[in-house]
Amino acid sequence: MNNQKQQKPTLSGQRFKTRKRDEKERFDPTQFQDCIIQGLTETGTDLEAVAKFLDASGAKLDYRRYAETLFDILVAGGMLAPGGTLADDMMRTDVCVFAAQEDLETMQAFAQVFNKLIRRYKYLEKGFEDEVKKLLLFLKGFSESERNKLAMLTGVLLANGTLNASILNSLYNENLVKEGVSAAFAVKLFKSWINEKDINAVAASLRKVSMDNRLMELFPANKQSVEHFTKYFTEAGLKELSEYVRNQQTIGARKELQKELQEQMSRGDPFKDIILYVKEEMKKNNIPEPVVIGIVWSSVMSTVEWNKKEELVAEQAIKHLKQYSPLLAAFTTQGQSELTLLLKIQEYCYDNIHFMKAFQKIVVLFYKVLSEEPILKWYKDAHVAKGKSVFLEQMKKFVEWLKNAEEESESEAEEGD
Fold first, then answer.
1. How far is C-alpha 67 from the chain's CA centre?
2. pLDDT score, position 10
3. What sign for the dihedral angle of Cα 159, 160, 165, 168?
4. For the region Disordered, what residue ranges are annotated (predicted)?
5. What is the dihedral of CA 203, 207, 213, 215, to 10 degrees?
């Protein structure tokens, strides 16, 4: 038997051929840029031809990998360096947004190019949003004309749904805000957006991304007031946007008022302090009394845990509301406020089924708070549809008594004359 170990064969010097598909292609945006620019040069400024070229090129060129380069070219004419400048030694094209005419019609045509491209290659959606966010951060590096074109284009793309309103976050960049670039850009953007849609559609898009209450952040902290925002955008021809922001501010102030009111009630603060606070907020935020009485009513009714038994809840409600009647009386000094309170009581009793039989008792309790005229008006034609037949029947005898009392006082007045 041979005890000598056999030498293992070696594979030194042998080479393995790597499959083509396993080789990682070198990242070369310059070569990609040259291909795109050459194609755009051949199509010229015919945007229909540009759209067809981009559609066909997606099958041959790696759009997924070079999305940023592609969008840089279509917007600025070539690859952008940090800060938004075009590199001097790079190829560039005039078939781009920045070299086009500065008018809305041209930007609408360019928006169609982007729209068709992204519809055809859905995977470009995220890359395009990232590109626009980047371009907004680069605004200071662009000329005023380039910024105007980009603003109009962005407005159109927001309107047709190609872009999501979350891209506007880039405009809150501290440096852009400080130098007034964000506000000036927003004027052009919102004009083109509202031109395509309307303020309600714009508001809905802003609400979806929680941007509806942040528009004042387009200005530095010392200018973040409704008055400054309204003046700036109204003078720029965007009155509907100014009114929208003012309304949003009012809604916010009303929510804050209700929250604070409920806290004061739960702490048991004296009514005189609560009334003083509410009146100050009314004046400061220009909230009318009929709106305030609705807020006070809601706050009063939310401070108690109601009994689930229908026969007991009416007694509990009368006791509770009797305690708060001075507070309600303080904000029913106008006929419209009294009518608003009646409608709020009607809606509450309808929406909370245990209160259906308590409506008339609550109104009678407030007879000292409410004058006869609003009660009669409510009964005649100012009520809402909710539980109408039930509540009108409950109020029938009381209204008849009011009418008779009114007639008697009129006849006594005539006899006195």
1. 30
2. 52
3. negative
4. 1-26
5. -50
Distance of CA 276 to the CA centre of its chain: 32
Q: Which residues contact 233 (CB under 8 A, 6 or more apart)?
A: 187, 190, 239, 241, 242, 245
Dist. CA 153–CA 364, nearest whole Å: 61
Q: Give the max Cα distance, the chain.
A: 149
Q: Would you state the pLDDT for residue 157?
A: 97
pLDDT at 39: 94
Residue (of 132, 138, 49, 139) closest to 95 by Cα position: 49
The single-letter code of the amino acid at 181 is V
In three-state secondary structure terms, 404 is: helix
Type of residue found at 363: V
For the beta carbon of residue 237, count every other beta carbon within 10 angstroms. 11
Pair 292, 282: CB distance under 8 Å: yes
10-residue block means of pLDDT along the chain (417 residues)?
52 49 66 93 92 94 94 94 78 92 96 96 96 96 96 97 95 96 97 95 93 92 91 96 89 90 93 95 89 94 86 89 93 93 94 91 88 91 91 93 72 54
Q: CA 182, CA 176: separation in Å to the nearest integer?
A: 5
Of the candidates 39, 137, 162, 57, the residue with the CA atom closest to the CA atom of residue 96: 39
**Cα within 13 Å of Cα(46), Cβ side:** 8
Alpha-carbon gap, residue 321 to 349, rounded angstroms = 14
